[in-house]
Amino acid sequence: MITIKSDAQIDYMRKANQIVRDTLNLLRDHTKPGVSTYELNRLAHEYILSQGATPSFLNYHGFPASICVSVDCEVVHGIPSKKKILKEGQIVSYDCGAIFNGWHGDAARTVGVGLISPECQQLIDVTEQCFFKAVNSIVAGVTRLGDIGYIIQTYAESFGYGVVRELVGHGIGREMHEDPEVPNFGSAGRGIRISEGMTLAIEPMINMGTERVDWMSDGWTVKTRDRKPSAHYENTIAITSNGIEILSL
User: Fold this and answer.
1) Contacts by residues 146-151 (CB-CB < 8 Å, ≥ 24 positions apart)
2) 8 A C-beta contact, residue 207 and residue 162
3) Disulfide: which of 8, 121, 212, 242 matches 225 by Cβ 3.0-4.6 Å?
4) What angle do CA 119, 131, 187 make, to 5 degrees?
């Protein structure tokens, strides 16, 4: 069931997403060769708590950390570890969620570790562009879910990239994952219409190579099947009477 949010409820979500945004900026500033993903998780955890919020991901269905840190071919759900040390030239995706006054925020960014290749930078840039092309096209009462997926898919595939099928965006509010699912692929003109009061986490997950993925034995980490790099970009948006607001920017 899709829940429609009031202006007051969106205001709570705005605060949660501002905390997520600032956490991601903190992580970006500390991304450098030699830092462990464990240390990055610690920084994020402490910052979220300092803002009077709770990390959404910690213990969510048993997830053992406060953020997901996914390196190179890891698409999503990478588990931070003292043994996982960032290296020059890698790319790293941070997925972060926070709960403030019972409402969730959710966003993700992919950044380079030191100097990265032009190919990896293009992948990061195109993934972010996929998000904005889709969001900037939304007109309440007109746009359908399939339109969002179609725009993301066609733009990413125009660069020869693979669009992950098994993982999708979602509604968000009092729960981190609510209806509806928001695929990054699809057919224009299909699916429900986007309406005022909806809040969605739109999150392109784009692979440099094949769209196919594998689940690792830890039960969480998802990698590209061909082990080529993957990028992830996500924001929570609200459809308001004044248009589309990106809450986590």
Assistant:
1) 146/186, 146/187, 146/188, 146/189, 146/190, 146/191, 147/186, 147/188, 147/189, 147/191, 148/182, 148/186, 148/194, 148/202, 149/182, 149/183, 149/184, 149/185, 149/186, 149/187, 150/185, 150/186, 150/187, 150/188
2) yes
3) 212
4) 105
Matching residue, tokens 């972010």: 128
Question: Comparing C-alpha atoms, which of 220, 205, 19 is closest to residue 103?
Answer: 19
* Residue 210, Cβ density class (10 Å: 0-12 exposed, 13-18 middle, ≥19 buried): middle
Looking at residue 228, its pLDDT comes to: 98
Q: Which two tokens stand for residue 149?
A: 């997926």
- Running DSSP on this structure, what letter comes out for residue 227? -
Query: What gap in Å lies between CA 100 and CA 144, rounded to an integer?
Result: 29
